[in-house]
């Protein structure tokens, strides 16, 4: 096992990998609660039952998709990167596709399934790998740093530290609110542990926050430890129904748009996440992602499996960087995360303690770790500084990893060409320029 995962070469051991996998799981566990709430459109009252997915089935689908995706990633690509249904695409699935466009959730799942199959095809032809490896090193660092800002922003929001402000979009929240105070406690504890160089500081910080939350009465003590798993039957295989019974609802322009959006966002989000986490773990070689094809294959398989089980796009999670920060370096950590997701199906009552104030400190501190790649960018070269900077700031400001990548990648060939560095631009970067310009024209 140690040889299979190359523990020696990567300077790691079972303890680090297990703590890393556990930390990643705890950082991601919120999706088990959030995904069913989102996909069943809980925030929208008075919907006909037929428009709502079954919450129990979505919960099991979420846990199984995360488990299977993380296990494939760990065993096949051997990266410490775990997967689960992505936030952002789950909101797009529920609020845009089902609620606004009026597409049935079954057909929306078919859209996810088709986008996953196209993904596998792109991966098997090697095109996806080629695209990722054609991205210049400095933009890759920018993507990592931008995702760091994005994840910190998500953490601050979850903590209630940054809130909506109608006049200027964002503002400081009520810092005396119980959950916000608990999150601030978690941030301070985690910062102290990390500054002292305590291994697993992020994980210990989460445990301490959860315990203090329970003592303070902000987090309910779990009602039990184990419970029977809900039935998967209401969503299992529903993605295939429209293909056999209602093909007319699939072959429409509207569905084409939906499938392309799923495909586009997942493609570039995954590319950014894989590179950022691999960079952080020191696993990149000569600016290239080793075994990129396998990692991408694992990601696309997870989307297909997730769609059949009954969830929106399953993707590589940036929260994996919390596990890497806690010491994870190999696929063993992803196997640990995957097994925990599998077990979580029965341990649902225990998961109730993983609330937003518990996960927020981890997200914020992970952001600090991820922006360290800013130091690798040559800020004195304006032609590099502009696309790098725009990639970085656009991610939190547009709340989209993919949009940040798109903006930066549009500016890169422009500034490089004007500076007379045309020869350094990989031909694929021109192709991406055209695709991203079309993307903006399209979403406009
Ligand atoms: N990379 C990435 N990480 C996430 N963590 C939670 N949701 C997402 C997502 O959609 N993409």
TrEMBL record:
Membrane topology: Multi-pass membrane protein
Cell membrane as UniProt keyword: yes
Chief localisation class: membrane
Subcellular location: Cell membrane
TM helices/strands, residue ranges: 18-37, 57-76, 83-102, 108-127, 139-163, 175-194, 201-219, 250-275, 296-318, 324-343, 350-372, 384-412, 424-443
One GO term describing the cellular component: plasma membrane
Keyword field: Cell membrane, Membrane, Transmembrane, Transmembrane helix, Transport
GO molecular function: purine nucleobase transmembrane transporter activity
InterPro entries (alphabetical): Azg-like (IPR045018), Azg-like_bact_archaea (IPR026033), NCS2 (IPR006043)
PANTHER family linked to this entry: GUANINE_HYPOXANTHINE PERMEASE PBUG, XANTHINE/URACIL PERMEASE C887.17-RELATED
Similarity comment: Belongs to the nucleobase:cation symporter-2 (NCS2) (TC 2.A.40) family. Azg-like subfamily.
Name of the protein this chain belongs to: Guanine permease
The species this protein was found in: Rossellomorea aquimaris
